[in-house]
Structure formats: C-alpha cells, structure tokens
C-alpha cells in the first residue's frame, strides 16, 4: 500500500464584518510550529527485531504493501522528524506474497475478501508470487522481523540458510536477506550498530501451539529447544535465556530501545470467530444422529460403573464425566460440535468404541480454520460422515480449557520475564497484551467517529488470517510504541492517524 501521511491541522480565518470596512481581519496569529525532539534517545540508527508482527505480515502473507504498513516503518517515519536515518526493508518481490524455492512454490499468496455464492470468504489472490527465496538481497536491513521465528531461533546460526530451507531447518524469509548461510538474526541486527532498537518476540513460542489446536507439546521443563517440534510451547526458562541474550547483544554498545510483551491468543479473531455450536439440524436428522450415538452414551455409563466398582474413580467424578461425555442433538441451529478430548478418561481399554469424545462447550475455542471444515464429509462417498457431527473433530480444530491453561501459564511467565528485563535493561515497555485486550473488549474510537475493533473481517483491527493486524491495527500498535518511547525518553514524537491506513486490503 502507498504511504499515507497525517493531515496537517489548519485554522480557519474568521471574517469580521464592520459597518465602515468589510475587509476580512485575521484575529488569530499563525500558531508556532511544533518542534519535535528526541529527548534522551538517539534515533539515528533504528533496527527493528522480531517476528511477523514486526515484519508487517498481514492476510496470511508478507508482501510489499504490508511491509510498508509495518509498525516499525511507521516509527521510522516519525524518527526522521528528530534525526532518524534511512530505514531499509527486505521487500518481497510483489504484492502477492507467495514465494518459490528454486522455482517450486513454498509460500502461499495473501488473502482477500471474495464474495462467493455462500457469502464473503477469505480467498488467496490468484497468480504465482515472483519472490524467489534463493535470490539473496543485499543488506543490511533495518527491519529484521522474520515471520515464523521463535525467540531462541533469532540466536540460531544457519537460520537464514537457503540449503536449510530446503531441509526444513531454516526460515525462508530470513534466507532471502541473511548476510551468510551461517548468520544469526541477532548477529545481522547487531552488526548495524543500532542507536535504538525495538524488540517484539515470543508470540510464536506460544502461538503455533495455539493455532494448531494444542496439537503440540507443552515443553515446560525441557531446556533443550533442539528437541522441540514446531507446534510446541517453549519452556519459560529457555525463553528468558533467549530474550536476555538478545538484549545483551543489542545493548552492548549503549543502544536504547523499546520492548513489548505478548498478547493473549484468546483476544484475537482466530479464536473468537467460530462458535462452539454452529450445527443446524432438523428434527428428523437430530433424531437420526442421537440414535447413532445411543450405544456410545450407554457404553460410557457402563464403563464408569465398572471403574467405580473397581474403586478407580469416585461416583461423583464418574457422574461428572458421564454428563460431560453424553452426546445429544436437538432440532435447531445451535448444536455443539463433537470433538476429541485427550484429557478425558481413556475408556478404550474397557471398550474400544468408547473413544475420548464429547460435545463442545462455550469454554472451548474453535480455531478460525474450522469454519470451512465443520460440516464437510470425512468420506465423500458417505453422506452421513459429517465432520463435527458424526465424525468428531480432531485435536487440531479446537483449544480445550486444559490446552488454554498451558497457554496461559506460558504467557504469564513470558510476560513477567519481558517486564523484568525491560526494567533491568532500562528500556521503554509496551503492554501489547493490554492493548489487544482493549481492542477486543471495547475497540478504539477514531476521530471520524468510527471504532476499530477485533471483529473478524469487519472490525478494521485484524487482517483476514485472524492473527495479524490489518494496517489500521498496526497503526494503533505503532501509537502504543510511540507513547511508551515518549514516556521513557522524554521525546515528543507525534502519533500516527490510523484512519490514514486501510482496514482491509482489496484484491
């Protein structure tokens, strides 16, 4: 998207009519121009470090317009008012967002809101992206945001290796602009001798677990990140050590900076859009489905009676789980989906048919991608094999309360570490967690009377992937960073106007 700049306020001329003279009189002198100052900070060399939120990722892709609308680019534009230098961005080759590795597509295109016969739907833009990962860009680059990166990966040698991308051990975005095959993100960032930096990392240490429905492992207690899978939660001690190592490196020569904490995933549209009970059934179909589940319902009663008789579980706990696992549908539009819940008591040793399934409740969070999966057929040749009804949803489609607790525990530990290190390194601190919660609960009212919210597709705060902000959302984040910087360093940088940025990109 093209850059937009804030409109300068202006004063109208007041015309005073007099009997003797109709000549307009300017009664107000021109206001003195605002003099912007950097306070105690030095913005001459700004480097931004982080993940997709720093890079300007939006609508499930990285592309030129999104990179220009990144919050670091907005900050850099303001820094120019007080001596900030050039801000180089490792631009993608086009506005499609897709990319290839040696001619083979490996990254998909960005989404846009298409109007289909079934209603508006996020749809990939047509065409093949022209970004080739193996074509190295010549740096250095001030925006060191690397989509998909976890905290400890910013310190990993070879994370920008083209050969590693082919093997699945390196990051394709960093491979495009790393200084060498063995470079680290932080090494390339520190080599620029930043006078000021921003750091926002750690979201992916939780987010990949969350967006995949908790199908990974909570690695709390495991201090060896080389043993982690992509969808695992990073151990809080590993996270703390990584963050401290990054800050030691970036502040070694006296640079000032700003750091942000991590938002709660429950506040983003990816987890707040799809209801737990979206299944419409007529009376005949509801009766048919209930008949199909009758044997299961009877079976769990018998299985728990056996466990109570063996003193393996109390009657009270058995009754509670029977109620939780009993599946029942009715005529109407708000039937809850059926899902697999691995935290239920395993009854398959008693009866192999008694898999750990139940119906969803309001405490479960359906992932955004489930909206196009629920109601499809598990077997195209069997019209009764409806996913979420006759066929329970797998773990990847929902965050259960137990999985949410894993996320919450990690988030609390990470954010406490971030706040402590902000104090220890004397940095400006941004409460991005609080900001995103405000966006969800009340929104941000704009000068034209509109309100930016976290409502999927229409709120203006988030893009169509349900995770990353839209440009207008990035502008609100930029203002939070500006406020924290001004408060810490005594600068008086102006805020940006979110209305100068779009709420959604068009095709």
Automatic annotation (TrEMBL):
Organism per entry: Flagellimonas nanhaiensis
GO MF annotation terms: hydrolase activity, acting on ester bonds
Protein name stated in the entry: G-D-S-L family lipolytic protein
């Amino acid at each position: 998207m093209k850059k937009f700049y804030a409109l300068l306020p202006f004063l109208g001329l007041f015309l005073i009519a007099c009997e003797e003279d109709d000549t307009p009189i300017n009664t107000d002198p021109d206001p003195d121009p605002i003099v912007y100052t950097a306070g105690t900070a030095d913005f001459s060399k700004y480097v931004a470090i982080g993940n997709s939120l720093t890079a300007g990722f939006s609508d499930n892709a990285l592309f030129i317009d999104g990179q220009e609308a990144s919050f670091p680019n907005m900050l850099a534009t303001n820094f120019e008012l007080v001596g900030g230098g050039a801000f180089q961005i490792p631009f993608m080759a086009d506005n499609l967002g897709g990319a290839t590795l040696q001619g083979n597509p490996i990254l998909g295109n960005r989404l846009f809101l298409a109007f289909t016969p079934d209603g508006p739907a996020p749809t990939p833009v047509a065409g093949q992206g022209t970004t080739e990962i193996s074509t190295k860009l010549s740096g250095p680059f001030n925006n060191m945001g690397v989509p998909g990166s976890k905290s400890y990966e910013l310190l990993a040698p070879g994370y920008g290796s083209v050969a590693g991308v082919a093997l699945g051990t390196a990051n394709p975005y960093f491979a495009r602009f790393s200084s060498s095959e063995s470079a680290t993100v932080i090494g390339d960032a520190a080599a620029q001798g930043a006078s000021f930096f921003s750091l926002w990392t750690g979201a992916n240490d939780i987010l990949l677990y969350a967006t995949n429905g908790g199908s990974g492992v909570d690695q709390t207690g495991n201090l060896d990140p080389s043993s982690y899978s992509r969808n695992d939660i990073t151990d809080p001690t590993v996270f703390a050590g990584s963050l401290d190592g990054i800050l030691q490196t970036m502040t070694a020569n006296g640079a000032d900076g700003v750091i942000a904490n991590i938002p709660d995933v429950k506040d983003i549209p990816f987890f707040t859009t799809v209801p737990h009970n979206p299944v419409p059934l007529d009376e005949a179909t509801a009766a048919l489905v209930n008949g199909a589940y009758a044997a299961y319902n009877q079976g769990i009663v018998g299985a728990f009676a056996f466990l109570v008789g063996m003193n393996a579980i109390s009657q009270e706990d058995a009754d509670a789980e029977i109620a939780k696992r009993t599946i029942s549908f009715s005529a109407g539009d708000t039937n809850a989906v059926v899902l697999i819940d691995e935290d239920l008591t395993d009854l398959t040793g008693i009866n192999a048919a008694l898999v750990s399934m139940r119906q969803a409740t309001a405490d479960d969070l359906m992932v955004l991608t489930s909206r196009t999966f629920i109601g499809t057929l598990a077997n195209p040749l069997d019209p009764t094999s409806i996913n979420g009804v006759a066929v329970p949803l797998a773990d990847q489609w929902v965050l259960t309360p137990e999985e949410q607790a894993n996320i919450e525990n990690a988030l609390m530990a990470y954010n406490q570490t971030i706040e402590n290190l902000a104090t220890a390194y004397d940095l400006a601190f941004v409460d991005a967690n609080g900001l995103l919660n405000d966006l969800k609960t009340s929104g941000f009212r704009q000068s034209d009377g509109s309100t930016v919210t976290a409502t999927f597709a229409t709120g203006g705060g988030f893009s169509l992937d349900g995770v990353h902000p839209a440009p207008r959302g990035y502008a609100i984040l930029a203002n939070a960073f500006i406020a924290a910087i001004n408060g810490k360093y005594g600068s008086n940088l102006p805020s940006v106007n979110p209305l100068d940025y779009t709420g959604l990109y068009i095709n």
